[in-house]
Amino acid sequence: MKVAMIGTGYVGLVSGACFADFGHEVICVDKNEEKIASLLRGEIPIYEPGLDVLVNGNRFSGRLSFTTDLIEAMRDVDAVFIAVGTPTRRGDGHADLSYVYAAAEEIAAAMQGYTVIVTKSTVPVGTADEVEAIVRRVRPDAEFSVASNPEFLREGAAIDDFKRPDRVVVGAEDERAREVLRALYRPLYLNETPIVFTSRRTAEIIKYAANAFLATKITFINEIADLCEKAGGNVQDVARGIGLDGRIGKKFLHAGPGYGGSCFPKDTLALVRTAQQYGTPVHIVEAVVKVNDARKLRMVDKIVDACGGSIEGKTIGVLGLTFKPDTDDMRDSPSLDIVPGLIAKGARVKAHDPQGMHEAKHMLPADVIYCDGPYEVAADADAVVIITEWNIYRALDLPRLAKSMRTKTLVDLRNIYKAEEFEGLGFSYTGVGR
Fold it and tell me: 160 and 87, same structural domain?
């Protein structure tokens, strides 16, 4: 089949490359000429393990191409996916759908025959209806269908998530659209992947409900971690004790500095605003948003306490800046609250991240000192703080770290170490919920 993918961001590029790997002919479209030029040179604008091999392999095979010309891309396509950004709208917290609606107008003008228009972007309930109305207004004579096909890709594992998903959700109002989506996902259907067909509005709600539920699990275990610290419990044992219950499950029960990234912060807030708009407030999700925002800031106080109550004039080393490992994504990362908070309290901050430092330089205060590795970060530091659990930080040479530091204080906000590992090295170790 022939597919056009509008948007070469995280969702569009991964989805386009994976559809091409399924054997379809995919052309990815973006208005950013510089980005398209770099993709045509084989340069990948985001870090995602394995994506460079997947993109360039399918590009050389002729199944995947890139262009800024939407009209050319729409020639003879079976389906066109809208995979543009839906950031939080300034001022009111709703999802900004301007890019989605602009894409719908341009698609309508470029359509050349029956086409299935698919919203891949994360959008509030009713967006597909509005996309259909826009296309009808621009092209009242056109033959088309609109479907919703939300993505469930985890950054750092996106290719595997696309090719071996727990499920595929398709919201469509007519059988013709469903048949096109079945054909596109045929390799997964043959592997007996559950394909859930629903109405468009249901599919849109599924995406937000899924992300809100996972964000709730993270926030729940973070609050239990606070209780464990005060009452003398171990949150990791609590998580294991409840996670082995099949009704609960063990995933997303890792206590830490709060969730971040491109999805959970904006999607929970968008769900809150949408529910308020419909007069059915989601009080649990409202609490999750509030608690998570506060938690990131509270991590600054946790670090200050570990340093004896003051960090004025002290050097704090930070390991990990991205919101999670195996990505260069800095969006809503806990480090964006923690690092400025440390500087505001008088600290000098040195930092390292395997992939995120280029982006961090545009988002963190200018006086952050960036280092080539964890031991350069630790040199003459009064404390080292682990914010992101990159593998490179899971096997640190602790005696070497101890020799480098001025004061042997380690604050592990991801619980990747145990206190007993630091015995005999003179360290003061602080974890989360233990």
Answer: yes
Residue 160, in any domain of the structure: yes
Per the annotation, the verdict on 228 as an active-site residue is no
Torsion angle of the four alpha carbons 37, 42, 43, 46, in this order, in degrees rounded to the nearest 10: 100
DSSP per-residue letters across 107-167: HHHH--S-EEEEE-S---TTHHHHHHHHHHHH-TT--EEEEE----PPTTSHHHHHHS-S-
Domain with 168 in it: 2-198
Per-residue DSSP letter, 88:
B
Distance of alpha carbon 83 from alpha carbon 3, whole angstroms: 12
Longest distance between any two alpha carbons in the chain, whole Å: 78
Distance CA 226, CA 224 (A): 5
Q: How many domains does the chain have?
A: 3
Alpha-carbon distance 351 to 320, whole Å? Answer: 7
In degrees to the nearest 10, what's the CA dihedral of 281, 284, 288, 289?
0
Q: What is the DSSP string of 269-301?
A: HHHHHHHHHTT---HHHHHHHHHHHHHHHHHHH
Measured between alpha carbons, how far is residue 135 from residues 71, 115, 117, 417 in Å? 15, 11, 10, 55
3-state secondary structure of 188: helix
Task: Judge whether 57 lies within some domain.
Answer: yes
Neighbours of 123 (CB within 10 A): 23
CB 28 within 8 A of CB 8: yes
Give the per-residue pLDDT at 305.
97
Number of Cβ atoms within 10 Å of the Cβ of 366: 5
pLDDT in tens, 62-116: 999 999 999 999 999 999 999 999 999 888 889 999 999 999 999 999 999 999 9
Residue 203 in domain: no
Q: Which of 18, 28, 263, 371 is catalytic?
A: 263
Same-domain status, 330 and 276: no
Q: Is a pLDDT exceeding 90 seen at residue 172?
A: yes
pLDDT digits (tens, 9 = 90+) for 2-45: 999 999 999 999 999 999 999 999 999 999 999 999 999 999 99
Mean pLDDT, to the nearest integer, of 359-386? 97
User: Exposed/middle/buried for 376, CB within 10 Å: 0-12, 13-18, 19+?
Assistant: middle
Kindly report the backbone phi and psi dihedral angles of residue 175, in degrees, each rounded to the nearest multiple of 5, phi listed first.
-70, -30
Distances (CA, A) of 96 to 123, 127, 221, 226, 283: 9, 11, 30, 35, 22
